[in-house]
């Protein structure tokens, strides 16, 4: 058996996330109590309502803290992933699990990344849409026709078969959506707070490049499938990959397919709302995907894993 841990992105958060772990696990309590960054992660995680939690600068740090905590619990039971991947901010959970970043550095960067992406999103009127029923090439051609140097639309996420997410300046996105609908595509608006994974995030990318100068990135101890590449890296610089990650398309579908090709046969999604599980089922409905979002989920998974 070859198991992969998958870490969710924005949208896989929930109010009170981690509280049941904190109340029932000494490992979880010790980790949350040890966090020492500017934001009060326990307050945000356990006692903040959904509206505040979904703000980018809050969501990112809360998600990564939860992901690190669950990973620590699994490791405490001797359950170590053979491979990892994370969706957008979830990639920092994967960087921790693979040994690239320490828990302190992963959380520090998550906090600063959230703030930087919020700043990059200010004073820009943008939209994000999921497009169904087209190809990457066709969507790229349409958004290119509706983009200028200042007002543009880009492909931001390729998460699963049949779905391509575009994001950018409002009028450019709407023109692209209208033309794609004329070609027979379906389009659903996504409620997000910024044009993430597009060139509008250039300022955030530059801030991350500066931040990374003081962060120690180590070699992966296990296979890590990167958003930017859709695969394991082959000599590419990790800092450069993660600097560009915020302003280039997430190739998560490629990452998941490459995991399957490399022999991963069991997946564990760490986060709420089954976001990645739905992506996986569109690739292959027979894939085994477990979800850990509550302490009860964790206990059930450990019991099943140890019993196999």
UniProtKB/TrEMBL annotation:
<dbReference type="GO" id="GO:0006633">
    <property type="term" value="P:fatty acid biosynthetic process"/>
</dbReference>
<feature type="domain" description="Malonyl-CoA:ACP transacylase (MAT)">
    <location>
        <begin position="6"/>
        <end position="296"/>
    </location>
</feature>
<dbReference type="Pfam" id="PF00698">
    <property type="entry name" value="Acyl_transf_1"/>
</dbReference>
<keyword id="KW-0808">Transferase</keyword>
<dbReference type="InterPro" id="IPR024925">
    <property type="entry name" value="Malonyl_CoA-ACP_transAc"/>
</dbReference>
<dbReference type="GO" id="GO:0005829">
    <property type="term" value="C:cytosol"/>
</dbReference>
<dbReference type="GO" id="GO:0004314">
    <property type="term" value="F:[acyl-carrier-protein] S-malonyltransferase activity"/>
</dbReference>
<feature type="active site">
    <location>
        <position position="197"/>
    </location>
</feature>
<dbReference type="InterPro" id="IPR016036">
    <property type="entry name" value="Malonyl_transacylase_ACP-bd"/>
</dbReference>
<dbReference type="InterPro" id="IPR050858">
    <property type="entry name" value="Mal-CoA-ACP_Trans/PKS_FabD"/>
</dbReference>
<dbReference type="InterPro" id="IPR001227">
    <property type="entry name" value="Ac_transferase_dom_sf"/>
</dbReference>
<protein>
    <recommendedName>
        <fullName>Malonyl CoA-acyl carrier protein transacylase</fullName>
        <ecNumber>2.3.1.39</ecNumber>
    </recommendedName>
</protein>
<keyword id="KW-0012">Acyltransferase</keyword>
<comment type="similarity">
    <text>Belongs to the fabD family.</text>
</comment>
<feature type="active site">
    <location>
        <position position="88"/>
    </location>
</feature>
<dbReference type="InterPro" id="IPR014043">
    <property type="entry name" value="Acyl_transferase_dom"/>
</dbReference>
<dbReference type="InterPro" id="IPR016035">
    <property type="entry name" value="Acyl_Trfase/lysoPLipase"/>
</dbReference>
